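ok so for the tutorial part 2 we go from a plain amino acid sequence to predicted structure tokens. step 1 is just haveing the sequence, like this:
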Amino acid sequence: MGGLIALVAAVHHECDVVNEVVCVPADVKTLFEFKEPWFTIGPVNFTRTSFLFLLAALIVVALLFFGLRRNRMVPSKFEAAIQSLVEFVRDGIARDIIGPEGVKYTPYLLSIFMLILVGNFFELTPFINFPIMSRMAIPFFLSLVTYFIFVIVGFAKNGLSYVTAIVWPKSVPVALRPLVGLIEFVSTFALRPLTLAVRLFANMVAGHLMLSLLLGSGVAFILAVGEIGPKAGIGIFWFAFGLFIFLFEIVVASLQAYVFTLLSAVYIQSSLHPEH
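step 2 — the prediction. this is what the tokens look like for a chain of 276 residues:
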């Protein structure tokens, strides 16, 4: 089961269940890095992470295709669920944040919302148990796409005034404009893609690490009952706590997909109207 299997394997070889109360692998990178290629196409090696990324993309395409291909008066439950997600992103994010012109950005916002949501839920999927957004390259790539979109949109809509409105904000007192303008310039053109990626990455790393440690420790202690006797009860506690975190991660996985998409819409809106 992904990270859980990796941890349990490490636990059996390294964990001292007699003297320790929680098991941690010698190198937590084993929970996130999968360097061995599953297969190779030409010069490209497909690792577990790259395969899961492609799988997430295919799932998103399949969900949207089968959920939206028919325009029926009475949709099925599945079609209604997919249509509700589309309406949520279109009306609750694109239109509410960007305005009426936000509709044309709905395909992009919907795509990243669905991709992040599916990728995050891989953490909770049996036999996968690995959120692909816990590899920094993936959220950083998505944040760069958002970055290029809002920068291009800003220059296309406002020309050079896109930059001047940022570095010389007229809504700020004149004495503070140089300082505020410098801060806004660095924030907009240097920090936004990094902070957008790190927020998603850090949350998914923390959740995956907690789940793996708690559930892995629980399994290890329970399996060692013949060796440690009543102390194996610690494993029951860790496993129960892990199940609680599992339910909490459902909320976190959904919330992080929403926050990333919401901030992407906010950045696009700020490029369309930099004076605000």
